[in-house]
Amino acid sequence: MSSTFRNISTIARKELHGYFGSPVAWLMMGLFAFIFGYFYISYLDWFVRTSMSGDMGGGMQPMNVNDRMIRPLLSNASVLVLFLLPMITMRTYSEEKRSGTIELLLTSPVTDVEIIMGKFLGAVGLFGGLLGATLLYIGILFVYGNPEWKPIVAGYAGLLLMGSCFISVGLFISSTTKNQMVAGSATFVVALLFWIINWMAESSGPTASAILSYLSITEHFDDFARGIIDTKHIVFYLSFISFGLFLTLKSVDTERWRG
Amino acid sequence: MIEVQHLTKRYGPVTAVDDVSFRVDEGEILGFLGPNGAGKTTTMRVITGYMPATEGQAVVAGHDVFTEPLEAKRRIGYLPETPPLYPEMTVREYLTFVARLKIGKITAADCAMRVDHTMKKTHVDDMADKHCSKLSKGYRQRVGLAQALIHDPEVLILDEPTAGLDPKQIIETRDLIKGLAGNHTIVLSTHILPEVAQTCTRVVIINKGRVVAVDTTENLTHQLKGAASLYVQIEGPEEAAAALGSVPGVRHVAETDRHERWIGFEVEAERDHDVRRAVAQAVVGKGWGLLELRPTRVSLEQIFLQLTTEEPAHSAADTPAEPTIGEAAHE
Fold first, then answer.
1. Which one of A39, B49, B194, B270 has the largest count of C-beta atoms within 10 Å of its C-beta?
2. Higher pLDDT, B67 or A214
3. Average pLDDT, chain B
4. Domain boundaries along the sequence of chain A
5. Chain B partners of A7 at a C-beta cutoff of 8 Å?
């Protein structure tokens, strides 16, 4: 069993090395930090101005940083993730297939599951790094304000879980093609579909609506952003991830037979 | 060491490898020879566990590649047609990664030692800290070889190991491969014939997915020679052909080249007949000049063409396999 973890970690580290050795990771970190920073500044500005005018009116309850600032910020970040994650996952398998390095992996004494888990955890690791970088912004709030930390942890856990869902989908799509661009675009389209699915839910009948909004990846994130960690959402995300990884496993296996 | 039995691989309706069987003994270098698209790469990919066979089995060092893939893969070093390098890694980082991947449990110190040792062996140590993307074709190929050797596998599968190298590198690589035999069992594929003659102990010739010959290099040359043939250059008239043809033991005479003063013939004799003396006498007896008389050796190239093309060997020069000869001749 320990050899499984060792192999997974070898591959995950290789993946991270690949991300940080090429412009992908840096570009993404820059983009993410920049856009997140823009949201942050806008909300902060709005928050400061409204709370000041609130103070002047007098008698109002002080505004809650968690509710009025961090929650909408994380909701926006969740949309940002949708655009960025296809860029992370598109190369996972496609690039290895194009350059032939997949032959090295598939002829090494590691199992398909170990390779997939390594690649998945590598991508999740990079995504975690992106999220980690934004904690700096949140940290500043702690210096000047007094936000509660528990809802923030819930929000970040939600983002990580939601991102992992997109990563598992992206991994599967990347495993079906040699072309990074195709993998990236298809992943984006699919991720978008899972995002907008609850718009469709609003305009359909009660049963369909329930099903559609259940499937919406972002719908499940709302509670996390609110600071609620509900097992039903965790179960949803974990089963979604498992399904994505399962499809990847099947796809890799099929490709093997087709050659 | 390697046992391939009735291996068949189909891609949809296309049969890439058709009922291929052969075995390689410990310490041997087996040449896997065939024109492009004959099924060499597919066969190697099945042996290395990259893809499963449609039918048949491959056993490497006692482990079936399909039922015990991890055990088999641990014992195989594989250099694919394109060396599987990660452009963003340096040579040292890359080999370290492969060592961890192939060996699994290895200490950092042991790993570093292995990497250094392998880099020296394959002459890539001067590029140790260069990124793989910056390497020349020759270095890429040798790093690929280093990657295959890093875990000191019992079996080495090399898909065209000298492709794209310059002549000096080719000689170095061949010497390296020859040096590895004994400790390792090696299968190498190529479509360059002298390579096989120079490095391999045995040859498997494959064409259109089927094995057309398996033998030692020498045996193959002997067996296919059929009749001994001679090249005779005569300073004399046209009828020399008829005169040669009437020499007892001569089966066939064909004009091969002609000059103002002389004509060259290819004389084919019956099996086990030495007709050299009789031919010389016949020519000299007529008063013609005998400028040259020498046995023509059937080269591996001719054998290869005989086996891989349906036409007889002498018209093979017109077949698409011709570039193979050219390439071989330029080596």
1. B49
2. B67
3. 83
4. 2-258
5. 101, 104
